[in-house]
Amino acid sequence: MKKIILYTISGLIIIFIVVTGYNTLTGKTKQPEPNPTDVTINEEKAITHLSQAITYKTISYQDRKKVNFDEFSSFIDFLQTTYPKVHENLELERINNYALIYKWKGTNSSQKPIGLTSHYDVVPVLEGTETNWEHEPFGGAVADGKIFGRGTLDDKIGVIGILEAVEYLLGEDYTPERDVYLMFGFDEEIGGELGAKAIAKTLQNRGIQLEFVLDEGGAIVENMVPGVDQPVAVIGIAEKGSAIAELTIEGSGGHSSQPNDHTNIGRIAAAIAKLEDTQFEEELRGPVNDLFEFVAPEMSFPMKYVFANKAIFKPIIQKILLKEPATAALLRTTIAPTIFQAGEQYNALPEKASAIINLRLMPGDSLEYVEKFIKETIDDEDIKVTVSGNEASKVSSVDSWHFKSIQQAARNVYKEAIVAPYLMFAGSDARHYDQISDNTYRFLPVLITGDDLNKMHGTNEQVGKENFINSIKFYVEIIKEAS
Questions:
Q1: Is 29 in contact with 297 (CB distance < 8 Å)?
Q2: Closest residue by Cα to residue 296 from 27, 72, 102
Q3: 154 preceded by cis ω (within 30°)?
């Protein structure tokens, strides 16, 4: 009997090794062969154009009354002067005065068009930090192989990169097969209501449905995925929703010398502690699962072994990813208490206490589900809970020719990069285009370090010259691939 048990166990172990080994060895790459680009850009001229674009203070403020729209008008005039072929050959329409739609008519307008979008507004420079910049934030300085200034990464590089690509193609007498729409917002940094949302609504009213839309978002990053030595170009196929949960309790005020065992502040604090201790359920699914499907075949052993057998090692993978905030956010709706308000006098118990929690919702998690989860977790009927905001965007296909065209274009410029889908944490204008396209993708074609990310909305925002030139080449390639 013991021998039978031992033989059975040995047999199961052998089967386990054979199956998992087979999965590891037979995992096929999902990367297309690169066709290295032969695009030759007038680099000095293009760099000068981005440098000049930075000098326009197209700053978005939450209080729109503070916005200087003269700068926006001047920027549009600059585009018209700088890109004569674009403005001679493409139709330009202005929405709400400052949002721009360029239509490039193709040879076969019966095909559904594609859309390339970016925004030219930028965030303000935090007051008091101006002297911390190596170069003036709106000076457009070119030094040490880099271009400095607000908008070099977010996102005048996209606007200028796209227009440089189209101007180049027009100079080559190129005409796309399908129509191409260039769509540039002017208020993305404060929600995009008058820019991208209005552009999308205008096209929707005309019955225009786009094959796909490509916006900013993911980028080419290094040391992002364990077991992958090459840079990884991540293309956002969805973005998390952003919601606000407000927790409020009233009553039980009085003098601090005679407090109840559980005060308003204590109960709100306890509620937050429960939420942080419990957390939303983690799950390796959707865009995150797709990410590892694409990168697993490129991993070194033993990470390749683990990820090639996700069904078996899923609990281990999730446990590893939960250790770091950046990777934990890939797996679940996140909870981030950001504001706590209570009390005015040190010896008086506040009659009201409230807290604001920022939530970033996973695809599939509804606002109703989130509110129910919070109420059940804190288990305090006296605390009022209200949840408002946006749910996650639609999830775009990774099997479509749209995604494969973006992937091919990226490989043509960055032949060493592994191109994979991912879930974007931040918000973008792309979500507004969900109503006129089944597939919206988020990708800024530049190599970005962790330090670059910190500078994007902070001090010393900058982009390397080569990075910028490569972004133009990518836009040339994607227009050709999509055509």
A1: yes
A2: 27
A3: no
Rounded-to-integer distance, Cα 394 and Cα 424, Å = 12
How far apart, in whole angstroms, are the C-alpha atoms of residue 238 and residue 215? 11
> How many CA within 13 A on the CB side of residue 114?
21
- Residue numbers annotated as active site: 121, 188
For residue 248, report the phi and psi dihedrals to the nearest 5 degrees: -135, 140
> How many whole angstroms separate alpha carbon 47 and alpha carbon 65?
33
| 346 — pLDDT class (breaks 50, 70, 90) | confident
Q: What is the pLDDT of residues 182-237, one digit of tens each?
A: 999 999 999 999 999 999 999 999 999 999 999 999 999 988 777 888 999 999 99
CATH of domain 43-219+395-406+421-482: 3.40.630.10
Q: How far does Cα 380 stand from its chain's mean position?
A: 36
Distance CA 299, CA 308 (A): 9
**Contacts for 336-340: CB closer than 8 Å, 24+ residues apart:** 336/360, 337/272, 337/276, 340/268
Task: Return the SS3 of 116.
Answer: strand
Where do the structural domains in the chain lie, given as residue ranges?
Answer: 43-219+395-406+421-482, 239-389
Host H or E run for residue 233:
strand 232-239
Which residue reads 């009085």 in tokens? 254
What tokens does 405 get?
């065209």
DSSP for residue 458 = S
Closest by alpha carbon to 290, among 381, 208, 218, 397? 397
Nearest residue to 112 (alpha-carbon basis) of 200, 213, 185: 213
What are the distances in angstroms from CA 469 to CA 41, 159, 429, 444?
7, 13, 24, 13
CATH number for the domain whose boundaries are 239-389: 3.30.70.360
